[in-house]
Amino acid sequence: MVEQVRAGSSATSTVEAAAPWGARRRAGRWAPGEDARGRSTWRRGRVLAAIAVLTAGLLAFHRAVPNSVGRLGSLLEAFLPWLGLVVVVLLGVALLRRSAAALVALLLPVAVWMYLFGGLFLSGAEPGAHDLVVVQHNVSDENTDPAGTARALADAEPDLIALEELVPPALLVYEKTFASDYPYHAVRGTVGLWSKHPLTDARLLDIKPPGIAEAWSRGLRTVVHTPHGEIAAYVTHLPSVRVRASGLASSWRDESAGLLGKAIAAEKLKAVILLGDLNSTVDDRGLAPLTSRMNVAERGFAFSFPAALPLARIDQVMARSATVDHIRTLPATGSDHLPVAARITLG
265-294 b/e with 16+ CB inside 10 Å = b? Predict the structure, then answer.
């Protein structure tokens, strides 16, 4: 009777479907939609689905990752946008596996990522009469072409140019190259600001962490007299961080950010612009003393470091009582950072 069914009866599929999965596998047959292990599109890919949910959780609740051990929270936040690559990889694997469960689960991290970073892809508002264009650049103390760097920055035609890692020989070159287009400038320690508008009340800003014993001057505060009113401009270079086997070494950077945050909180002028190499991204909780008080760029990723393969924007433009509409990178110079240019709307 079984031979007759195999020979052509329409009941063949019914008999095969009713047979145990192990027997069907040994016979090389399984039901439509099943894989070689007999799992349907909804049953396979559960591990992928779990990883997708975990990725969504890290994106949405990155502040919950503790900093008590190796500052893992800050390390995650420094590269938070790159979790989008995990989603792309999971999508490719889910398609290969034909896993309906994983594909549905991936909607969650996609939605969270778009909520956090999707707006950065949008075009900024049209330039207005109350806009300022600013350029921020860590020019590197090993830059062998300061004149070329200065010309490249001036080509963007900004109102303000903030520089870090200024050293005496190169400083003379920057002053000479900028002199005609930027007649006003202030330098304190290794940071400086060049402006098309008059500057007054320039002073050194003390943001040195107590643990640093050597001479260290990386902060400047001055007033820019624009056609739209006075603006307090801060140019800073926070301490570097290091990724070690024990985690992220960022305590000095965090202490310096705290001192800078207190200085900005005490600033009497309403409008404030902060330009600098802050050695972190705006998602990093280490910069919370600044990001909690100031607006960050609404449009543009502008990954600035390292210049050869930019992975993060650690060169920042922030503002108080003003909007940073859009930020972008400029072509590479002789520095290990890319310069960034931002448009700021006042009022």
Answer: eeeeeebbbbbbbbbbbbbbbbbebbbebb
